[in-house]
Every structure is written in structure tokens, then in C-alpha cells.
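Section 3.1: Structural characterization of target chains.
Under the original work plan, the team committed to producing a structural model for every single-chain target entering the pipeline before any wet-lab resources were allocated. The record below documents one such target. The sequence was received from the expression subgroup and is listed exactly as submitted; it comprises 281 residues.
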Amino acid sequence: MSENGKLNKFWLWELTRPAFEDWVENESEPVIVLGMGAIEQHGPHLPLGMDSLGAKHFVHEVAKRTNSVCFNPCWPGYSPHHMGFRGTVTFKEDTLLAVYMDTIECLADHGVKRFVMSNHHGGNSDIFSLTARLAKQYFNVMVAQPSGPSNTELAKVYADRQKRHWDVHSGPTETSGALALFPELVEMWRLENWEPALKMDPKLYEFMDPDREDFELVSQVRNATMPPVNIDFTSTGVYGTNDPRTADPDEFRARFEERVGFFVDFINLWKTIPVPDAFKD
């Protein structure tokens, strides 16, 4: 419910209509936090809903700490590159864009001016950014895409691991997140005989060394060379060269807290800035 604008439930679908109306009318600066994930293969050990499950946990935690309403408009994302593996469900780019645009349009029509979007699947990135730009233009709302913090010691560890091992999909980082947030859905036993499954030109492995002076150049050459469908470069669906069994849920919890805190700080600061005249009806 919501009383004088204060929520005790935060998912849009859990609120009654009067509770939502109370929140919109009495919260001085109502914010909707939108999550974006995917339903796609995540190696042999992680659930197909990994990205959307992560988005669900993240946006709800942010909403709880900022008296915001959170909403995951859909569970699939843009994942055609994962279709070589069974279980993946992907929306076409125009379908996914329409889902998010329709969502923002409806909520804007009900009086919400501030939207925070949180993306948890790399394949959504372009659609994610385009949604934010078009929604501002067509629906007269503010749309934010916070990203950070990137300057903490833990953030630097994560960034180095991603560069050095291409730990971006189903490796230790994502496995740590699943073990921290929904361990009952993880099947670590399927990794008993794990070994790196990347199939690349040997020279491209040399391009994964962030200590190289020319890393900025060679890493982009490697990205430009990777096939568009991931079953062509990984037989297991796991990216990267580091072992998912080295996952550290405690490390993830610390990074999760950093990221949630950043979003909370962003929203709280943003709400101190009045809605500019350009966004007023």
C-alpha cells in the first residue's frame, strides 16, 4: 500500500490502483525504476533467466531505498546471438523497443516524470539507449541511465577481469551473482569437467592482455573479429577463459551494494532538482 506517498510495497503489479494514485499524488518526485534483462542460455550451470532475475533483485532493492516504484516490463530481451543454444527466447529489436516505449508512455500519462532504467544484458544496450532518447522526445519525460561506481577498488577488479579474461557471460562474475541472489537455481555440478571452450584465432588470445600498451587498439580488433552467433565461438555457452568455479558470492554482494548505493544516491540527488519547464505539461 501507500500512505501519504510512502510505499511499503514497491513492485508496480503489487500495488492497488488507490495505492499507486496516492504515491503519484503525494510523493514529491515520483520515480519509476525499470529493469531490462533477458531469457537466454547461460552455460550449463546458470538459469536461462539469469539477466532478468538479476534485474529483478537490483531494481527492487533500489526502489525500496528510494520510495520508488519498480517494474520489469518483460522477461526476454534482445538475444538473437544466443539462439544457437536451446531455451533462449529473444524479442526482435522493434518488439523490445515497443514494449519499453509503451510502458513509459502509459506511466507518463499517469503523471510520472522521472524514469530510471537499469540494463542487465549487454545485447540490450543499443535498444536501451534508444528507448531513453526517444521517450524523452515523444513523452516529455526525463529518463536516466545511471552507470557506476567505476572508481572503487572492487570496480577496478571487475573491469580488469573482464578485459583480461573476457569474463562477461556465465563466467565467475555472473556465477557469483547467481550464487548470491538465487543459489537454488544454480547447478554447479554441471561444471565438474569444466575447461575453457572459446574458439578463437590464437592471435586474438594475445589481444586479451590489458597490460599491453596497444590494448585499446587490439581489444577493438578482437571485438570486430568475433562471430555474430556465439555458438560459433563457444561450445558451452560460457564466454571467457577463467573458471566459473572460482565464483565468489561475497565479492558479488559487495559490488551489488556499491551499485545499488550509486543508483540510490543518483535518485536522491536527482529528486532535489525541480522538473525543468521543458518537461512540464
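The chain is about 45% helix and 10% strand.
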